[in-house]
Design brief:
Blueprint lengths: L1 E6 L3 H11 L5 E7 L2 H11 L3 E5 L7 H11 L5 E5 L3 H10 L4 E4 L4 H12 L7 H12 L12 H11 L4 H8 L3 H15 L4 H10 L8
Parallel strand pairs: 1-2, 1-3, 3-4, 4-5
Helix pairs in contact: 4-6, 7-9, 7-10, 8-9
């Protein structure tokens, strides 16, 4: 029996995953969590075989959450579940220790395939992610300023790049307005920009505009 913890701050997503997994006789959801603190607690309590981790937990950079899970529970594989396409975070997630990366737009059977592949000792990558990994090996990308951003900073930048107001970004990421402003200032400092208009131009030029409305 494969014992799984689900970590996602949206109850509907957690319930959706339950519905996908429920018919599987060899997979059991032992607990779920809505933030990183809960995730760490239930992972310690239930010692699951795998954690399915949303990359956008409240008040947490998903990759930082992944790194904390890997530090605290190095033997527990983590499957990243994300609203963002593979181009945005997948390679960074794998390099940070994830055992797989799937998007919420993928078909239900992809989740089951990912769980079983990982539990068989493999790493789950979609066909698109396999292409990106091949390109990353053959043609390492030249260093660009936004590569220095954390996952959360990149999320904020993508939403600013779409022209979203600070208040809306705070609501979508379940963080405070002051936190969004802090991330915005860090983006300015790391990339050398001085205005939201400059962020929008940069995000469009580099293909990192948030397409999830």
């Amino acid at each position: 029996m494969i014992r799984v913890v689900i970590a996602d701050d949206h109850e509907l997503i957690r319930e959706g995953i339950r519905k996908i997994i429920r018919p599987q006789k060899d997979i059991q959801i032992v607990a779920d969590a809505a933030d990183l603190a809960q995730t760490l607690r239930v992972t310690s309590e239930y010692a699951p075989d795998m954690v399915i981790l949303d990359i956008s937990l409240p008040e947490c950079d998903g990759l930082e959450g992944l790194e904390e899970l890997r530090r605290r529970f190095p033997q527990t594989p983590v499957l990243i579940l994300s609203m963002y396409a593979e181009e945005r975070f997948a390679i960074r997630a794998l390099k940070a220790g994830a055992s797989g990366y799937i998007t919420k737009a993928m078909a239900a059977e992809e989740l089951i395939k990912a769980i079983k592949k990982i539990m068989a000792g493999g790493t789950y990558v979609s066909s698109r992610l396999a292409e990106l990994l091949a390109l990353d090996v053959r043609q390492p990308a030249s260093v660009v300023p936004h590569q220095s951003l954390t996952g959360r900073e990149l999320q904020v930048m993508a939403k600013l790049g779409a022209g979203k107001p600070i208040k809306q970004i705070a609501a979508e990421l379940a963080i405070s307005i002051s936190s969004v402003n802090t991330y915005r200032l860090r983006i300015f400092d790391k990339i050398g920009l001085t205005s939201n208009a400059a962020i929008i131009r940069y995000a469009i030029e580099h293909g990192i505009v948030d397409e999830c409305f």
